[in-house]
Amino acid sequence: MHARPEGPVIRLAPRFGAMLALVSLLCSPLVATASTVRYERVLPLSGIERFSGAGDAAAIDLATWRQLADELQRATETPFTPGAAEIARLERAAQVRAAIPLAVIDARYERSEPAAANATSAAPAPAPVTRRAFAFSPLVDRTYRADVSFRLDPALWFSNDAPLPQQLTFDAGDGLGARTITPDALVRVRYAATGAKRLELRYQTAAGDTRIARATFTVEALASPTPDDTLHITASIPYQGIAATADAYVRLAPGHTQLTNPVVLVEGFDLDNSMNWDELYTLMNKQGLADSLAADGFDAVVLNFTDSTEPIQRNAFVVAELIQQVQAAIDPSATLGMIGASMGGLCSRYALAYMEANALPHRVRTWIAFDSPHGGAVIPLGIQYWVDFFAGQSADAALLRDQLNRPAARQMLLSHYTTPATSTAAPDPLRATMLADFAAVGDYPALPRTVAVVNGSGAQQSQGFLPGDQLVRYEYSDFLFAATGNVWALRDQTSQMIFDGRIRILFSTTTRQVTVSGSPAWDGAPGGWRSSMAQMDSVTAPFGDIIALHGNHCFIPTVSALALSTTNPFYDVLGDPDLVSHTPFDALYVPVGNQPHVEVTAENALWFRAELAQSAVGVAPRVAPGLALRAAPNPFRDAVRIELAMSGAGPATLEVFGLDGRRVRTLLAGNGVAGARAILWDGRDSDAREVPPGIYFVRLAADGVAVTRRVVRLR
Q1: N or C: which end of the chain has fewer CB within 10 A?
Q2: Neighbours of 363 (CB within 10 A)
Q3: Helix axis angle, 381-390 to 395-404, nearest 10°
Q4: 338 - beta bridge partners?
């Protein structure tokens, strides 16, 4: 449960006389100017009273500032603040500016006082009370470097009655206190520590009043490596008449002065296109993966789409263009590895298949799809309808609704909301078009080694709730406002109410109920998860609490990431005795439990490195001796036969590791002889205890190189 924000809470007794008084107030002609703000016109989700300009004003975050600006726009006949879509555009523009712009709201608004509730039927309509909202926020709310510049942009001063002051004080939360600033001047700041910072802006009005606003800002890191180069890519092949663009950030391995041994990493669905080098590097360097790959001798080429929400086929042609440019930059005998994260797996898959189908050479030796939605993605349909229903009152809901309507989302989602709602849970028609385009080029590339690394459970682990369970509860009602937004999970194929919504602002009431059938129970299926419900719960709602009854939902089902031809969300993946042959991949890496979507973990970081190293050219400083390793039966129950071969004699080790990287058993340690031999592993650890069912890695190392094979022990 969340505490209510600080500030007065309006509690009005439901008396008919008070209602007449408020109706009279709201219907009275506007006095002063058309920019007068009547706040009773909107559902005040921002908690505007907290940002009064007084000394006890709360610190606002960027999302709440966005909501506040959107509410002021909708409560004004002649808006002076931007709405949600314009703010999103400003935020995207701010991502590439040298200085982070500070956006300020200094506004007068009118709102009835609680005393109106005590009015009798004969009482005249009370005059509205004028209040002040003073709030600011940096349009980029975090940094990955110690040195930051801010700028108070005159174009981002939004007011209906206060001119931009020519002198203010600004505290950047760097421990140096307040400093005097002027509009348009750069404020250079150096942070000494990471963490949340509280910024403060204040100025004195002509009347002598001091107005104070506070904002949050996060220092994620004090340093982030700078790319050695940035390639600006425009696809040579348009899709539907439009050529996509992207930036490719190049980070060379130590000792390299040019691209030598590249691994191309393709980004996924970036909801608001806000991720750039710093954000992408931070994600791929979890568990030190990016730094480890660099130490292994790999040059990283990180592709960042200009608009990741465009059609997947369009962005795939950017991937194809990048492949051709990378090939032109490296030695003609060199090859490259490729990792496509989430939607990036679909874009790279189509790019490679298209190139093969159209005789466009590529030298991709290994293609890894990382938790990619080959069989579709899931955002609970009830949440989609929640977002659509509240989009008229919530800036963030409006932005998310807009992204759900973008082509890439419509192509990936297994169920997509409709307007008006229908009784069947079904994908958008764009999905069928995309699948047909994929089929036309062969569906999957045939030349590289194809690998699927997934975050979803292979052991049928659910997300902690049953089909048809309620996921979100939001109910609030008082004299002025009422809101209901309840969400349920899909029930397996059978009819189920998934959304019940109601908004009342005085006498204006909007309701919607959605009942659907015809879909498997994807919401709670094994898969890489997304915390959509927990994120909703974390929002401080001034009117009631949004309660997540369950925090996470399946986002990329395990069966989807493995491209299994089944509509059973709970297919027994690890129980399939011939799993690889049922997929289009050469190798599969599946955890026992569910993990966050595209989360780099200790175990899959090892998987990535092993796969990229197995067929890499030029990684080892000298020619490695030939090693071969295979395991059968795989999966196994009691014992597995490990067959190994070495081209030369010398010291060798054969070891078994668990998912956590812990050594489970040493099967061979000493001098290995040239040729082939077999060793039986009986499924026991070094203390002769039986190991539990799950995934293990058998590693053969000799003369400074190694080869790894995954084995699965069944129940």
Answers
A1: N
A2: 17
A3: 130
A4: 264, 367
Give yes or no: residues 292 and 262 share one domain. yes
**pLDDT exceeds cutoff 50 at 550:** yes
3-state secondary structure 211-260: EEEEEEEEECCCCCCCCCEEEEEECCCCECCECCEEEEEEECCCCCCCCC
* Positive or negative: CA dihedral 312, 588, 646, 622: positive
State the Cα–Cα distance between residues 418 and 428, nearest whole angstrom.
9
Rounded distance between C-alpha atoms, residue 240 and residue 439, angstroms: 18
Q: Can you say how many angstroms the Cα of residue 145 is from the centroid of all Cα atoms in its chain?
A: 21
Is 8 inside a domain boundary? no
Backbone dihedral region for residue 282 (phi beyond 0: left; psi -120 to 50: alpha; all else: beta): alpha
Tokens, residue 429: 């028609």
CA distance 94 to 281: 19
Q: Name the band, by pLDDT with cuts 50, 70 and 90, for residue 370.
A: very high
Extract the runs of DSSP E, i.e. beta strands, from 429-568. 449-453, 470-477, 481-488, 496-505, 508-516, 527-530, 546-548, 553-557
Residues 385/512, Cβ–Cβ less than 8 Å: yes
Domain that holds residue 634: 624-713
pTM for this structure? 0.79
- Residue 583 domain flag: no
Question: Which CA distances in Å does 449 have to 262, 554, 616?
Answer: 16, 28, 12
In angstroms, the CA 29 to CA 36 distance is: 11
Q: Are residues 156 and 47 in the same domain?
A: yes
Distance CA 585, CA 567 (A): 19
Tell me the pLDDT band of 633, cut-offs 50, 70 and 90: confident
Structure tokens at 384: 């989609």
- What pLDDT sits at residue 113? 60
Q: Is 96 exposed, middle or buried (0-12, 13-18, 19+ CB in 10 A)?
A: exposed
Q: How far apart are CA 365 and CA 348, in angstroms?
A: 13
Q: Considering only CA atoms, which of 185, 216, 215, 189 is closest in space to residue 202?
A: 215
Q: Give domain status of residue 576, yes or no.
A: no
